[in-house]
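Students often ask why inverse folding is considered easier than folding. One informal answer: many sequences map to the same fold, so there is more than one right answer. In these notes we will look at a single instance of the problem. The structure comes first.
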């Protein structure tokens, strides 16, 4: 559930890592990993939330 105007109580912290591999001269594969977290709260609604996210992104590029 989304609440507007919430105060972030702990700064957002993210760690990212990425790499690219060129296969032959026409194909490239990119891989990226993202991990992050933050906390937010709203005293008007007595709401406190800890959010952790992670993602793995894989992308291919073909050159012609």
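Output (designed amino acids):
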């Amino acid at each position: 559930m989304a609440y507007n105007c919430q105060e972030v109580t702990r700064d957002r912290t993210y760690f990212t890592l990425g790499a690219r591999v060129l296969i032959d001269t026409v194909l490239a594969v990119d891989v990226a990993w993202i991990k992050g977290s933050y906390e937010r709260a709203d005293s008007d609604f007595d709401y406190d939330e800890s959010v952790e996210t992670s993602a793995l992104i894989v992308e291919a590029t073909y050159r012609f």
